[in-house]
Design goal:
The chain is α+β, with helices and mostly antiparallel strands and about 375 residues long. About 40% of the residues lie in helices and about 20% in strands. The longest helix is centred in the C-terminal third of the chain and has 21 residues, at about 260-280. It is globular, with a radius of gyration of 24 Å. The model is unreliable at about 350-360 (pLDDT under 50).
Length: about 375
């Protein structure tokens, strides 16, 4: 079996790095990105300067503004982060088509054999990738290189404190990471870590050296596959094929609690726009739409409705979502969030039709024209009337 060479590219403090792209004056300063712009905000990204001051991930803003008054806190701009993420991923895909995007700030890339294509070492290739991403997007990244996804992930974590690049050679795995704690492995939960330690497994070396039959008995086939990956054998190859979603949900908490129906309607239309646009990007259609309301006390209510025609037309989805909100809304309640969910999705004109109904998928040309305009000129360049 041919040995795979896999790298994990992880954007450093991605949300903060994006804010620095748009505002270079933030460079070198303690910066945090939070969920919203008032006291209800929670820290979700920190610069290295903010980390050095002791700012914790998930800390509420009202604590940070008192304990760390010099820290600059910025509300999240997720659409901008998605735009920059696409730029980063585009740069990565220029080096190899075998790229698996894991999240907005992480991607695996299969480099197997590319040392011959580029006529250089794998270390030189990832060094070049890192510098090219920085030159073209201004986003710093950490890259881990090894022969499996698990090892590449461990290497990328180490790269954050070793200048941005770290390599775990397949022939020096135990020498390089053998003494790392077992709970540091991605895929080992707290309960499994406790069970392993109870049985004398405290490090990666202990785990790799444990009998296969015992690992299968205690952790099942997933545990055995984990051992193989830690041993440098690729069990989960890089998969560049994106899988179409089974449902699409778009939701966000408000900056302040509200019982204002007009405000709820405006937010719902915003989320419907986002969800329907994602649906069209997959060339998909939905047969059911629902809205989700969450109260101040975290109670969640939802309401769904079947659509007469499987569609991706935003105006039709907006109309149905509005009707659902009018039915679900209670004027005596304070709400903290609203969202929309598209279900019963179909793709590539694959739809079950009744023998007695002439149902067709409604592929809305107007919505697609608006999508193209937003792609070219920016988000929300055109406002749709109520």
């Amino acid at each position: 079996m041919k040995q795979q060479i896999i790298a994990l590219i992880d954007c450093d403090s991605f949300f903060v790095s994006c804010e620095k792209v748009d505002n270079p004056s933030l460079q070198g300063k303690p910066v945090c990105v939070m969920t919203s712009k008032n006291n209800k905000g929670i820290i979700i990204s920190r610069s290295k300067e903010a980390k050095a001051l002791g700012v914790k991930m998930g800390a509420p803003y009202f604590q940070i503004k008192n304990s760390h008054p010099k820290v600059i806190c910025i509300p999240a701009h997720h659409y901008r982060y998605n735009e920059i993420s696409k730029q980063v991923m585009s740069v990565i895909k220029n080096f190899s088509p075998d790229v698996e995007v894991v999240s907005v700030d992480e991607a695996y890339i299969d480099l197997t054999g590319l040392n011959k294509v580029y006529k250089t070492t794998y270390t030189d290739i990832i060094t070049k990738i890192r510098q090219t991403i920085l030159d073209k997007t201004s986003i710093p990244v950490s890259i881990g290189l090894s022969s499996s996804k698990i090892l590449a992930k461990l290497a990328s974590d180490k790269a954050k404190t070793t200048g941005g690049i770290f390599v775990i050679r397949p022939d020096k795995i135990l020498e390089t990471i053998g003494n790392e704690n077992i709970e540091d492995i991605c895929g080992i939960g707290s309960q499994n870590a406790k069970a392993l330690k109870f049985n004398g497994i405290f490090t990666i070396k202990d785990f790799i050296n444990k009998d296969n039959a015992w690992i299968k008995k205690v952790l099942g086939i997933n545990g055995f596959n984990l051992k193989l990956e830690l041993s440098g054998i690729t069990v989960s190859p890089v998969n560049s094929l994106e899988k179409a979603p089974q449902s699409i949900q778009d939701t966000k908490s408000f900056e302040d609690f509200t019982d204002n129906l007009e405000f709820l309607h405006s937010q719902l239309l915003f989320h419907t726009h986002n969800a329907s646009q994602k649906l069209r990007s997959w060339n998909g259609f939905c047969s059911e739409i629902g809205i989700i309301l969450r109260t101040k006390d975290f109670n969640t209510t939802s309401l769904f409705a079947k659509l007469e025609t499987s569609t991706n037309a935003e105006l039709k989805l907006r109309k149905q979502a509005t009707l659902l909100l009018n039915r679900l809304y209670r004027p005596n309640l304070l709400y903290r969030s609203i969202g929309v969910e598209l279900r019963q999705l179909s793709y590539n004109h694959d739809i079950q039709q009744s023998l007695f109904d002439n149902l067709k998928q409604d592929d809305d040309k107007l919505s697609r024209i608006l999508d193209d305009l937003e792609q070219k000129f920016g988000k929300n360049i055109i406002k749709i009337g109520l």
